[in-house]
Design brief:
By secondary structure, the chain is mainly beta. It has helices at 100-103, 105-111, and strands at residues 4-7, 10-13, 18-24, 30-36, 43-49, 54-56, 64-70, 73-78, 87-94, 116-117, 121-126. Strand 4 (30-36) and strand 5 form a beta hairpin. It is globular.
Length: 127
């Protein structure tokens, strides 16, 4: 069983930046960041596969960047943060695709098709 550990959350003023990290206990094919604000549903933020193909939610395009420096470590660089970015951010991971649909990382992000989830790290953006 793969274990994920997130770090890097915190409090920042609007316009500021934060960098989240997620470390997996073993290799994963794809990884992603999701977030959930109080009273709201879970939202896929960004995802990346082992080929470096990435997908982003429209709400964070141009502000957030997902990256890996090895197959077990995931980052989310968040710039120009807004109060509406306040949420619990969770890392997720999964193995190779089992269907044509899950082969597209954007589909996995939209459907939250990931089998392993971390505990989350809080991000709070004040105005």
């Amino acid at each position: 069983q793969v274990h994920l550990v997130e770090s890097g959350g915190g409090s920042v003023q609007a316009g500021g930046s934060l960098r989240l990290s997620c470390t997996a206990s073993e290799y994963t094919y794809c990884m992603a960041w999701f977030r959930q604000a109080p009273g709201k549903g879970r939202e896929g933020v960004a995802a990346i596969d082992s080929f470096g193909r990435a997908s982003y939610a429209d709400s964070v395009k141009g502000r957030f960047n997902i990256s890996q420096d090895n197959p077990k470590t995931l980052y989310l660089q968040m710039n120009s943060l807004k109060p509406e970015d306040t949420a619990m951010y969770s890392c997720a991971a999964d193995g190779p695709p089992t269907s044509a649909q899950s082969a597209r990382i954007s589909n996995r992000l939209k459907t939250a098709n990931f089998g392993v989830w971390g505990q989350g790290t809080q991000v709070t953006v004040s105005s």
